[in-house]
Amino acid sequence: MATATSPSLRFPSPSLSLSSRLPLSSAFSVSLRPRRGASRPLVVLVSAGLDAKPTVLVAEKLGDAGLKLLKDFANVDCSYNLSTEELCTKISLCDALIVRSGTKVSREVFESSGGRLKVVGRAGVGIDNVDLAAATEHGCLVVNAPTANTVAAAEHGIALLAAMARNVAQADASVKAGKWQRNKYVGVSLVGKTLAVLGFGKVGSEVARRAKGLGMNVIAHDPYAPADRARAIGVELVGFDEAISSADFISLHMPLTAATSKMLNDETFAKMKKGVRIVNVARGGVIDEDALVRALDSGIVAQAALDVFTEEPPPKDSKLILHELVTATPHLGASTAEAQEGVAIEIAEAVVGALKGELAATAVNAPMVPSEVLSELKPFVDLAEKLGRLAVQLVAGGSGVKTVKVTYATARAPDDLDTRLLRAMITKGLIEPISSVFVNLVNADFTAKQRGLRITEERVILDGSPENPLEFIQVQIANVESRFASAISDSGEIKVEGRVKDGIPHLTKVGSFDVDVSLEGSIILCRQVDQPGMIGKVGSVLGEENVNVSFMSVGRIAPRKQAVMAIGVDETPSKESLKKIGDIPAVEELVFLKL
């Protein structure tokens, strides 16, 4: 019987290319409004009229190669260290703005542009300093440069790994203080030690390559990384618990998402080998910093080398920073001359492409599609994303998602139903929960291709009135194992199907079982022996924990045979409650799926 566990995590696969662009006419426009209730924007379009040479304001230092690309196409104004007032004054004369992390591009900046500002380029990955909602409302595209610093970050991870193992920072401070403490700073060798790489994406795989060259045994946890790519560089993919419990060193390379926030905590530290050493050049929030201090004090963690922190810069009295077993650097992962030049070229290409009217693959925000289209499709847009989220969470760790089939049942002619938005939202649901990527209509296909994800579409033409755009949407993932065996259809794929009822998305099929549960909150799926009292038993367990049940539906093969119970819940049940449900004798397997 399968027991309920936390949903598996997926981390991004390596980029294949950054040069893909979708051609667009040189001048076009679109009316913009943010999608109500959306945590991330949906569609990227940029208005570009190129009768005159555009002006690009570079507000922070950019590499010469990037500046040359800009100057070949546009008038370039390099004005650094602008105050907010000065930036707001200049921006009304500019078509594009390029910043790093030091310039705040606030709503006031977009309002001051008078509608002229078409593109904001962030020379780097993070976009915390750009008001994305304001950019979208003002029709301004925001692009970033996410790949140019891969090697630099990997090299810094290896530098911290070696420096930590040999106490370089502490010994340096000791010598400069006039001491000569050779016995105190005896280190450990890297050769023959096991390094667990958590997150086998672009940076993680580069760290693994370099660690192999140092003679380390490298394992990795990334449930959705292709096993053949790991094998090609001599890395074994393992489960999360196996990775952290068998490692001498752990290197973190996952994005910060709701699923990875405080992924290393008291519970996970307790599972680690005593004396483990930890490197983090990913995101500070993936470690519970208070728990790390406790693990260092207790000896579970021998040392930590950190380049990123939950709060940056960290407080001067931070117990973690001041800990004698911690080596700290001020977010230097991308800080090499070569990486900075690469970022300059990458962001310049993205900004120039956007100003030409091309659709940027690195876009991170999006205006709306035509309001009349979205108004009709909105409930199906929500359904599409949630089906993607459900389907990917049903995939068992270690199974790489490569082939997805989407079926639309409709009475409309092909020309009367544009499915690009629906496909983009399914892609969004499949990728965003386990990645730092912002998926939208523009970059959805590119992002799927980047990760080796092939999405095919099929239409089932129904008789009847074409008044409603769709009858149902079905998502199938082929060639994978499932965390919930009953989600496997008769043809061998994970299959989920949904419909819109009274404007609300509903899950109506899991595998071969018919169910009917509103896709609000989260869902528990149980396979059980069909017998009296099961609804009451499960409801009682949830009620004891004050977990509200919004919907409950049972689909069965035949009376007294196997059945699948789908339970919609408003709150997240504890692991203990899920275990109690799993321990009910008639329950054969269960899984908790977070929407």
TrEMBL record:
Q: Which InterPro entries match?
A: ACT-like_dom_sf, ACT_dom, Ado_hCys_hydrolase_NAD-bd, ASB_dom_sf, D-isomer_2_OHA_DH_cat_dom, D-isomer_DH_CS, D-isomer_DH_CS1, D-isomer_DH_NAD-bd
Which domain of life does the UniProt lineage start with? Eukaryota
Native species: Vigna radiata var. radiata (Mung bean)
What keywords would UniProt list here? Answer: Amino-acid biosynthesis, Chloroplast, NAD, Oxidoreductase, Plastid, Serine biosynthesis, Transit peptide
Per the annotation, which location comes first and is thus the protein's main one?
plastid
In terms of SMART domains, this protein maps to: AdoHcyase_NAD
Pathway where this protein functions: Amino-acid biosynthesis; L-serine biosynthesis; L-serine from 3-phospho-D-glycerate: step 1/3
Record-given protein name: D-3-phosphoglycerate dehydrogenase
This protein's gene is called: LOC106772582
Catalytic reaction(s) noted: (2R)-3-phosphoglycerate + NAD(+) = 3-phosphooxypyruvate + NADH + H(+)
Where in the cell is the protein located?
Plastid, Chloroplast
* Glycoprotein is among the record's keywords: no
| Residue span(s) of domain ACT | 523-595
Q: Which PROSITE patterns match?
A: ACT, D_2_HYDROXYACID_DH_1, D_2_HYDROXYACID_DH_2, D_2_HYDROXYACID_DH_3
Q: Which GO terms describe its molecular function?
A: NAD binding; phosphoglycerate dehydrogenase activity
Print the organism lineage.
Eukaryota, Viridiplantae, Streptophyta, Embryophyta, Tracheophyta
NCBIfam families under this entry?
PGDH (TIGR01327)
Q: Which GO terms describe its biological process?
A: L-serine biosynthetic process
Say which family it is in: Belongs to the D-isomer specific 2-hydroxyacid dehydrogenase family.
SUPFAM superfamilies membership: ACT-like (SSF55021), Formate/glycerate dehydrogenase catalytic domain-like (SSF52283), NAD(P)-binding Rossmann-fold domains (SSF51735), Serine metabolism enzymes domain (SSF143548)
What EC number(s) does the entry state? 1.1.1.95
Instruction: Give the Gene3D superfamilies listed for this entry.
Output: 3.30.70.260, D-3-phosphoglycerate dehydrogenase, domain 3, NAD(P)-binding Rossmann-like Domain
- Cellular component terms per the entry's GO annotation: chloroplast stroma
Q: Does the keyword Oxidoreductase apply?
A: yes
